[in-house]
Amino acid sequence: MKRVSIFLFAIFLTTIAFAQEPLVNGVDSVGLTVSDMDRSVDFFSKILTFEKTSDIEVAGEQYEHLEGIFGLRMRIVRMKLGEESIELTQYIAPEGRPIPADFRSNDRWFQHIAIIVSDMDKAYAWLRQNKVRHASSGPQLLPAWNKNAGGISAFYFKDPDGHALEILHFPAGKGNPKWQKSSDKLFLGIDHTAIVISDTDQSLKFYRDLLGFKVAGQSENYGVEQEHLNNVFGAHLHITAIRAASGPGIEFLEYLAPRDGRPMPADEKANDLIHWQTRLTTNDVDVAWKQLLAIDQFVSSGAVTLPDHTIGFSKGLLVRDPDGHVMELVQ
Question: Dihedral angle at the C-alpha atoms of 321, 326, 300, 100, nearest 10 degrees?
Answer without folding.
Answer: 120
